[in-house]
């Protein structure tokens, strides 16, 4: 069955509106954090999307090095781009949380610091792509860089476990205690957020694929003309 953007976006839009309403108005406040816990319903889905899309970029880079097919390079680039976008949103959301909780937007907490390192690593990925003119060399070097940059993902994820951190943990004791309704709100926001993410990935991939095909066609015609 043909994929229809209008149907998918309608379902995704309705789902996201319900998830937002559920997180803001239905789920109760947390015992320790109060209303501040509502930031979690939007911050955590963005962080998860960041990790997912950068993992996809790494896997696509490995596939490109093995098969040398352009579609994998395009998918790696598209995923890395969304990783930058969602990573920025995660950093901003974390800063808002930090200011509301600790009174400062940035205090070099391990989770904040490692996530910032992650973001700059993938910014470097795009700076590298822009610096290499040869398409095949660009794809190969970028794939290797993407694989190495992925090391910052588990580092960011596990940072508050490895080092002492003020970053809150979701738990029944010793962290953020979530009730059943709060868990439902969190899961609903995560699922609907991922629905929108996959639509963005599909569109980004299509645009980059068309741009890449046009560039390859232009270069091929240039060789024939020469």
Structure explained in plain terms:
The protein is an all-alpha fold. It is 78% helix and 0% strand. It has seven helices and no strands. The chain has helices spanning 5-26, 40-67, 70-102, 110-131, 135-149, 152-162, 180-225. Helix 2 (40-67) crosses helix 5 (135-149) and helix 3 packs antiparallel against helix 4 (110-131). The chain is globular, with a radius of gyration of 20 Å. The termini are far apart.
Short description:
This protein is 78% helix and 0% strand. It contains seven helices and no strands. It is globular.
Q: Order of helices and strands, N to C?
A: HHHHHHH
Instruction: Please indicate the percent range of residues in DSSP E strands (runs of 2 or more).
Output: under 5%
Number of strands: 0
The number of distinct helices, counting runs of at least 4 residues, comes to 7
- Biggest sheet, open or closed, and with what strands and sense? none
- Helix-strand makeup class: mainly alpha
The averaged pLDDT comes out at 87
Catalogue the unreliable spans.
none
Shape call: globular
- Give the % helix: over 70%
The value of Rg in angstroms is: 20 Å
Distance between the termini: 44 Å
């Amino acid at each position: 069955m043909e994929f229809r953007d209008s149907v998918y976006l309608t379902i995704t839009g309705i789902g996201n509106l319900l998830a937002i309403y559920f997180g803001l108005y239905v789920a109760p406040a947390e015992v320790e954090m109060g209303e501040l816990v509502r930031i979690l319903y939007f911050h955590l889905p963005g962080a998860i999307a960041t990790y997912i899309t950068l993992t996809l970029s790494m896997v696509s880079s490995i596939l490109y090095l093995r098969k040398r097919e352009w579609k994998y390079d395009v998918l790696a680039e598209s995923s890395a781009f969304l990783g930058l976008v969602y990573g920025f949103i995660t950093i901003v959301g974390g800063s808002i949380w930090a200011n509301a909780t600790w009174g400062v937007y940035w205090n070099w907490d391990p989770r904040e610091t490692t996530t910032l390192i992650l973001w700059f690593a993938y910014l470097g990925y795009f700076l590298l792509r822009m610096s290499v003119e040869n398409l095949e060399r660009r794809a190969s070097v970028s794939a290797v860089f993407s694989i190495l940059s992925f090391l910052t993902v588990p580092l960011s994820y596990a940072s508050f476990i490895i080092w002492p951190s003020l970053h809150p943990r979701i738990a029944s004791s010793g962290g953020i205690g979530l009730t059943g309704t709060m868990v439902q709100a969190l899961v609903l926001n995560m699922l609907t957020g991922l629905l929108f993410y996959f639509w963005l990935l599909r569109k980004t991939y299509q645009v980059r694929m068309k741009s890449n095909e046009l560039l390859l066609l232009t270069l091929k015609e240039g060789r024939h003309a020469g």
